[in-house]
Amino acid sequence: MRALFGGRAKHDYLSDALTLLNGWTREGEQIRRTLVIDDTQHAALTERVKVVADALHLRPEISRLADHTQIRVGHGNTPLSEGEVLLAARIEDAYRAVTES
Questions:
Q1: Which GO terms describe its molecular function (predicted)?
Q2: What's the pTM value of the predicted model, to 2 decimals?
Q3: Is the N or the C terminus of the chain less surrounded, counting Cβ atoms within 10 Å?
Q4: Which candidate, 33, 51, 8, 50, places its Cα nearest to that of 92?
């Protein structure tokens, strides 16, 4: 069963969930993560993230600069949602999968 979160309880729930996501930083209503991975790992990560993001109907921003991949989740004008925090957690799972293989 899924619990509904509203108001202050929702904010506290998301804040607690974000503390479990090591490496993610909050910038206003967005969270971001920078990963040091090679081009092959970046391609694999991007494909895995696309599958999860499509299922959640979300669009993270993924960019590549030299040997860094930067990921942003959320929009600057709306509060973070449960789905966006869930996406960040799934991105962490995908990151572990592509770097352990």
A1: 4-alpha-hydroxytetrahydrobiopterin dehydratase activity
A2: 0.83
A3: N
A4: 33
